[in-house]
């Protein structure tokens, strides 16, 4: 109860857009996400010989802070120069970097906490862009504690392989639908209510896991694929926030969408394979868990779901005042 605000899945990327407007001159858009009024602690540091040609502007949105700069990089421009993101190494998020040159060449990459800087190149191939977003999708799912807990909760209530395949497929189809709809701009869900609803989906699974452990039954235990599909629609909007909140140019969204979704699926399948491998290892080794240890996963998932639900509802109600 005394804990400060925690971002269970706030791994939304920051976004840097650089457009060359004249030889050696650029417009710069720098967008950092906010959560409950707290700005992501990342500072943009341009090369030292850059000059501001106009007064910068700052705009505070509901979920992010947007800075605009107009700079002169000299006759050689920004090619080969390094841009640093100070403080990125202390986060679990990334920075999407998009560069558009005067001759219409484009270049895109992602800076990670392990390498909090980028060096501007001239252009990037389609395969390079796809690889960038596949990696981003894998990282997004693996660092998303709430999404991973939801998948783990589903695994704990499924008893046979056919139902497992059916449930995983159902969850994949559902979140792919809403990921595409939201990313392409056909629908939008406010981030604060969405986060609360995702937390509620985890809380919902807690009691079902305990019922399964006790040998009881319910509609969720009999047909987990239905629940996976319903909540998968919610989680798809959560995945979409990683792309839409980055402010990516619309013409690049289809390629980013497909690549990102592939990365999400690879990360999700890797997590499921790991859990199944651990379960099989325990069975082969004939590990005998005490009664309290068998009940621990269900109560842990339910408790975390309850904590995140209350926390995010408090943030939502606080932001509505």
Notable traits:
8 helices, alpha+beta, 8-stranded mixed sheet, 321 residues, disordered N terminus, 51% helix
> What order do the SSEs take from the amino end to the carboxyl end, as H and E?
EEEEEEEEEEEHHHHHHHH
Biggest sheet descriptor: 8 strands, mixed
Mean pLDDT: 83
- What's the total helix number? 8
What gross morphology would you assign? elongated
Low-pLDDT regions: 1-10
**What is the count of β-strands?**
11
Summarize the structure.
The chain is of the alpha+beta class and 321 residues long.
Could you explain how this protein is built, in words?
- With 321 residues, this protein is α+β, with helices and mostly antiparallel strands.
- 51% of the residues lie in helices and 19% in strands.
- The protein is built from eight helices and eleven strands.
- The protein has helices at 126-142, 145-157, 161-183, 191-214, 219-222, 224-244, 253-284, 291-320; strands at 14-22, 25-35, 38-39, 43-45, 51-52, 57-60, 64-72, 82-86, 95-100, 106-111, 117-119.
- The strands form two sheets. Strands 1, 2, 3, 5, 6, 7, 9 and 10 form an eight-stranded mixed sheet that branches.
- A hairpin with a 5-residue loop joins β9 and β10.
- α2 runs parallel beside α4, α3 packs antiparallel against α7 (253-284) and α4 runs antiparallel to α6.
- The longest helix is centred in the last third of the chain and has 32 residues, at 253-284.
- The relative contact order is 0.14.
- The model is unreliable at 1-10 (pLDDT under 50).
């Amino acid at each position: 109860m005394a804990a400060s605000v925690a971002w269970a899945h706030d791994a939304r990327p920051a976004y840097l857009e650089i457009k060359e407007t004249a030889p050696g001159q650029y417009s710069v858009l720098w967008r950092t996400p906010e959560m409950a009024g707290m700005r992501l602690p990342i500072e943009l540091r341009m090369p030292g010989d850059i000059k501001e040609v106009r007064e910068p502007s700052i705009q505070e949105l509901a979920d992010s802070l947007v800075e605009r700069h107009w700079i002169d990089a000299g006759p050689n421009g920004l090619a080969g120069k390094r841009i640093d993101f100070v403080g990125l190494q202390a986060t679990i998020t990334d920075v999407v970097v998009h560069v558009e040159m005067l001759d219409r060449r484009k270049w895109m990459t992602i800076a990670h906490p392990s390498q909090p800087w980028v060096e501007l190149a001239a252009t990037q191939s389609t395969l390079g862009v796809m690889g960038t977003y596949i990696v981003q999708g894998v990282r997004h799912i693996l660092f998303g504690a709430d999404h991973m807990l939801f998948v783990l909760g589903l695994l704990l209530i499924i008893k046979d392989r056919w139902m497992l395949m059916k449930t995983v497929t159902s969850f994949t189809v559902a979140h792919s639908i809403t990921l595409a709809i939201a990313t392409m701009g056909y629908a939008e869900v406010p981030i604060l209510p969405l986060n609360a609803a995702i937390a509620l989906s985890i809380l919902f699974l807690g009691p079902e896991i305990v019922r399964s452990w006790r040998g009881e039954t319910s509609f969720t235990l009999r047909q987990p694929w239905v629940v996976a599909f319903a909540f998968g629609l919610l989680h798809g909007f959560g995945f979409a926030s990683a792309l839409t909140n980055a402010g990516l140019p619309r013409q690049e969204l289809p390629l980013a969408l497909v690549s990102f979704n592939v990365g999400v699926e690879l990360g999700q399948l890797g997590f499921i394979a790991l859990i199944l491998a651990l379960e099989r290892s325990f069975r082969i080794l004939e590990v005998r868990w005490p009664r309290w240890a068998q009940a621990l996963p269900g109560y842990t998932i339910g408790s975390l779901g309850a904590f995140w639900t209350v926390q995010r509802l408090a943030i939502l109600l606080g932001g509505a005042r």
